[in-house]
Amino acid sequence: MVGGGRGAFIGAVHRMAAALDGEIELVAGAFSQDPDKARASGADLMLPPERCYGSFQEMIEQEKKRADGIDIVSIVTPNYMHFPPAKMALENGFHVICDKPATFSLDEAVELKRIIEKTGLCFGLTHNYTGYPMVKQARFLVQSGALGKIRKIVVEYPQGWLSENVELTGYKQAEWRTDPKRSGMGGAVGDIGTHAENLAEYITGLKITEVCADVSTFVDGRLLDDDANVLLHFENGAKGLLHCSQIANGEENGLNIRVHGQKGSVRWQQLEPNTLHHYDNDGARTYRPSVGNLCDSAKAHIRLPAGHPEGYLEAFANIYRNFSRTVRKTINGETPNAFDLDFPTIDDGIRGMQFIETVIESGRSNAKWVKFKN
Amino acid sequence: MVGGGRGAFIGAVHRMAAALDGEIELVAGAFSQDPDKARASGADLMLPPERCYGSFQEMIEQEKKRADGIDIVSIVTPNYMHFPPAKMALENGFHVICDKPATFSLDEAVELKRIIEKTGLCFGLTHNYTGYPMVKQARFLVQSGALGKIRKIVVEYPQGWLSENVELTGYKQAEWRTDPKRSGMGGAVGDIGTHAENLAEYITGLKITEVCADVSTFVDGRLLDDDANVLLHFENGAKGLLHCSQIANGEENGLNIRVHGQKGSVRWQQLEPNTLHHYDNDGARTYRPSVGNLCDSAKAHIRLPAGHPEGYLEAFANIYRNFSRTVRKTINGETPNAFDLDFPTIDDGIRGMQFIETVIESGRSNAKWVKFKN
Amino acid sequence: MVGGGRGAFIGAVHRMAAALDGEIELVAGAFSQDPDKARASGADLMLPPERCYGSFQEMIEQEKKRADGIDIVSIVTPNYMHFPPAKMALENGFHVICDKPATFSLDEAVELKRIIEKTGLCFGLTHNYTGYPMVKQARFLVQSGALGKIRKIVVEYPQGWLSENVELTGYKQAEWRTDPKRSGMGGAVGDIGTHAENLAEYITGLKITEVCADVSTFVDGRLLDDDANVLLHFENGAKGLLHCSQIANGEENGLNIRVHGQKGSVRWQQLEPNTLHHYDNDGARTYRPSVGNLCDSAKAHIRLPAGHPEGYLEAFANIYRNFSRTVRKTINGETPNAFDLDFPTIDDGIRGMQFIETVIESGRSNAKWVKFKN
Amino acid sequence: MVGGGRGAFIGAVHRMAAALDGEIELVAGAFSQDPDKARASGADLMLPPERCYGSFQEMIEQEKKRADGIDIVSIVTPNYMHFPPAKMALENGFHVICDKPATFSLDEAVELKRIIEKTGLCFGLTHNYTGYPMVKQARFLVQSGALGKIRKIVVEYPQGWLSENVELTGYKQAEWRTDPKRSGMGGAVGDIGTHAENLAEYITGLKITEVCADVSTFVDGRLLDDDANVLLHFENGAKGLLHCSQIANGEENGLNIRVHGQKGSVRWQQLEPNTLHHYDNDGARTYRPSVGNLCDSAKAHIRLPAGHPEGYLEAFANIYRNFSRTVRKTINGETPNAFDLDFPTIDDGIRGMQFIETVIESGRSNAKWVKFKN
Questions:
Q1: ipTM (interface pTM)
Q2: At the N or C end, where does chain A have fewer CB atoms within 10 A?
Q3: Which residues in chain A are contacts of C298 at CB distance < 8 A?
């Protein structure tokens, strides 16, 4: 693991997600650029000090030498520190799983794809929300034609935690996310807008072709956007809206999506992730994990019988489990099946970086529509 | 009453809303342009045949002559037939209450305002959703500063009933709403978008200054829009989104609003109108009719103790009751109080017509932002 | 109308319910036993002073003499004052609609039934909750066999408004409801327990055969029960629970029911009366007014298109409308249809009084089960 | 681990719960009484074959000899197989964590407590629902006096999965739960009624003193109860109801509780475990994980920031984590703190067995009230 030392948030999430299914084990880490903190963080996790490295370079070099060295490098650092360890890990023969957005810039993401293709190794991106079983079911309903031709998509991701200037109070999670040197070009757009974009494209199978964005920074002195309202055009003539915010005071993590087709609609809300609403002009029904008929993909991503709520970590773990199964089969020379391969890849990463750069450009532009960057 | 004969929808709503509080009585009508249907409709309502007129002109002329003639003309016809009876009624000394949008075009609305001012009579517009007590409470929370400076407004009004070409099946409600000769320039934008616009401006007290609209007609052969996604700029720097649809299959009448201020947020949903959510980063509370402390205006618009759900008709009746009290006091030479005067007027009507014409223009424009029409 | 003067609650409800559909008109009243208050209350309602009587006796005598006298007497007094005006009205040829519970005691109810049968007049009882369209749909699902054999019924009616001794503060609604001289034997059991009992029997068509009750008075000094938990046996082997409370602090008017059959279940909650949940081990669906296929009875009790919430007053008005249509047809020598006749009668009233007296007896008994009183 | 081989449900839950926080590692097991299945199950879990034992006796004997032997025995077998391995493990110096209910009979539970006290070892019981953070918050609100004196408790646990005779179809989870030789005296009462009882006593800190139960078996041929409705008396004069069912068709795992005090109420529902409703006659508020002020105990049992739903496994893991910390500190000679010690013990186990035996006895009795067994 690269990053994820004391005080980090997403590192612990990755560790719990990886541990849940017992298919992957944390054995080494470069948890911090501060060697003392790196070792202390490793000790918290009961790792031997010799495998708690002071830098990702050292980790990669040393682990490569070990017979029992790691197979997978998990990257949980701020965005600017995704590409360098990913590149080095891949070039040294390690598979890589990385937090989103893929990289600091679109150019880096494109370059990363080139490296992945060259090395033939596995690369996973933790757009974790697509790991929820009811998201799989929504995708199935679209793909099976149950909704008819898709006409309208409304996706939103409001949060309220950056309503004030908390990045000035020493709050690390806020500091790097509002710092263009570490986050990249996008604030809310990069951190959560990309999740919304990814979810919409995953469920519908449709790609955004152009956007019209109103990008704002409401908090004085903040250097990146903290709110964006975006009109969307999709490739088959579908229209959409995406809005994301870090200043929607009181909103927790309200990733929600509605997809309206000619024959029916689905609605899914991350805060109640175990219910999928499917409705049309004749009525409404719900899908719930382990209840009645679900598609195979939904079933493959549920661990528990009906009525036992699964949450964020289980969805995250689904990404990890699928990725680790793909890696294992790849190592063993087996062919991963469709469920194993159901995790976000560098292609999702490139879409996300295109989204960030296109939305930010649109926000600055007087043109109504800006085409998705290539 | 002008319009509202057999087969109409909103006429019956106006009648029930007027009847609920016993302050206004239906005694005459021009329910249809077809004299037989007009009389039959009147008979259904137990009106004497001599007060069931074949045209609004006849009604106004005859009622004017009666000692016990009507005081108020209620206009519940399709949009193109709002202005002519309103003008004639006002010019003959009758107060007028009219369904929304105010008129067929912005020009007519401006002219109507001139007539109202000239005659000094009362004019009410049934933007009924502002009649809900919890909408009053939301407005109070904004105005009292409980939310801090308003930053973001998300308002939406999805419906699904026009997902197919039902206007070709003889369905009257669909026919005139999709006919530019009877509806005017806007389809979904005019019929329901104006409700969303009115609700947002009513609750926040902020006016929209410019819009960026993506206006669509999804159903083949339809002559007016059936979907619109609109970015909004408000006068104090607040940003917003408004979307409305008649093709969101399975949506009933999903008028919803969220207002995010620097200090907190409110959320209200028309399908559960008796709950107002007030939340910020420290937690969430709900307001409910007749529970705990509510603002005076909310209390003035509740009829029942806690736990007795009031709905659409009661909210509609609140508009009627306030309007009729204002008329009565005006007739009696008394001064209406602030609660009496809390009903939409021609100014709301003009805002609505500006909204329609600006959004439609923006939908056709390549410019990113189009300023609100004057 | 008998009762319902200034300061009353349910009188105004009856008036609004009667007015909503324009089929019944309030023309006379004995609104209070205090003649001044009676007249003042009548004046509020724009009734002529000569038809605002100082007693129900006077009203019945005088109205009987008028050519344009009333057809129906509506009784909205406290329980002890139901039987005397009902008896006199019926014996003088008036149809009667009365608030629940039917009478002060079971004996009175039985006597009242005898009078009704003797006179051949119509008697309606406002167990208003059965007026909701989605309750009709629930009843239909049971009766049509969609749920299979009914096994378990859970019905509850928690309120919190009597958590403290508010009857000592001059609050009229609390005063008479906690006074055994005016309410009868039951407190919560009589006021709201009977609604729960009526709803359960209405939806399932099954009669309670015996009960096991734990009846409590939590508030010091209160003379009647304010809480009851009751085990139920129904006639076909179904089991059930009923609980009602006036001291469930913070509960509004939480009448809820779940009916579990061998093949499926329904759930309905009065605070969200426009949604009926129908679910089984394979999934869940909802029924909503004016959406998709509903039974004829549900459709006959809806006034508005989909998405326009109807509430307590509309359900109450359904009882009034059906009753008044039955009265009109009876007067006109026509035969009321099944929808007209769908209102609670003296038989429901007797069931309610049996329920009160059986539950109170069970509460005092050491026997586990007490059979329903006859 | 004892039990939990292929085809088991709760064994996998225990393993995931134990793995989540990385504080406990599965290293050996007696997963099945069938040695082949035991080894195959162990291989699935990547355990070495020599630590996959054919019986718990063998496991305990062999592990005791190893320097790196296990510290904790986790028992996930059907009820009749709790006591023997627990007794042997404790008597051989191992700490024990065991699924609920504690034992096959109350006598065994009492004997087990004697053994635990004699050995001085740790014993945890996985009444997992008390592990939810919002349950901790509910308990805090009661204990801090925010609700005032507790008056009424309504707790329920409906399920529908045994609506039909699925135990005859080879469904293992149904087979042993409906078999009195493996489950003990209680069916629904033992399997889920005990969870409801435990939750009510945990949150309120009040003990049930007597019950009045209506216990049913609805499915033909079933040997144990599948439904129970129970009136409760608690020690401070509080009244309550508990109902549990396996034949409430369509219910998933509907463990819900409402606690009504003189000053306010709380409501918690297992299917939406991240929201706690706190309400009184003046209004309602919600508590959510990582939002605003929560009690220390709630905060100590949350892993993620606001808006990241935690579910059943995380609550289960909280029990495991607290238990394992207590074990570790005990082994290290440290003193566990209050949070470490917040897991169910043999005392909860004895309460549960008392509940089962008292409710079943009451169900068979004509006496109204049966005192809680000692």
A1: 0.96
A2: C
A3: none
- Which distant-in-sequence residues (6+ apart) come within 8 Å of D182 by Cβ? D78, D79, D80, D81, D176
Helices (H), C105-207: 106-119, 133-143, 172-177, 180-183, 188, 194-204
Q: Compute the mean pLDDT over every residue in chain B, rounded to the nearest whole number.
A: 96
* Contact: B312, C312; criterion CB under 8 Å: no
Contact B284 D288 (CB under 8 A): yes
Q: Judge if A156 and A295 occupy the same domain.
A: yes
Nearest of B78, B133, B173 to residue B316 by alpha carbon: B133
Same domain flag for D198 and D256: yes
With an 8 Å Cβ cutoff, are D227 and C263 in contact?
no
pLDDT higher for C11 or A274? A274
Q: What is the percentage of chain A residues whose pLDDT exceeds 90? A: 92
Neighbours of chain B (3+ CB pairs under 8 A): A, C, D
| CATH number, position C247 | 3.30.360.10
Closest partner residue to A279 among B161, B233, B250, by Cβ? B250
Whether the predicted pLDDT of A163 surpasses 90: yes
pLDDT at position D7 over 80: no
pLDDT exceeds 90 at position C8: no
Rounded CA separation D58/D52 (Å) = 10
How many domains in chain D? Answer: 2
Report the residue from A239, A262, A281 with minimal CB separation from B216.
Answer: A239
Q: Which of the listed ranges C212-226, D15-29, D47-61 does the model predict with the highest average pLDDT? A: C212-226
Q: For C9, which of B272, B305, B313 is closest by C-beta distance?
A: B305
The mean pLDDT value for B222-238 works out to 97
Q: How confident is the model at residue C5, as a pLDDT?
A: 86
- Going from the C-alpha of C350 to that of each of C201, C230, C234, C241, D371, the distances in angstroms are 13, 19, 17, 21, 36
Query: What CA–CA distance (Å, rounded) separates C105 from C373?
Result: 12
> What pLDDT score does B23 carry?
86
Query: What residues make up the domain containing B354?
Result: 132-304+349-364
User: For residue C291, which residues of chain A lie inside 8 Å, CB to CB?
Assistant: 281-284
Please, what's the b/e burial string for D215-251 (b: 16 or more CB within 10 A of its CB; e: otherwise)? Answer: bbbbbeebebbbbbbbbbbbeeebbbbbbbbbbbbbb
* CA D232/CA C240 separation, integer angstroms: 16
Are D94 and D222 contained in the same domain? Answer: no
Interface with chain C: mutation pick from A279, A280, A294, A295, highest number of C CBs within 10 Å: A279
Share of chain A above pLDDT 70, in %: 100
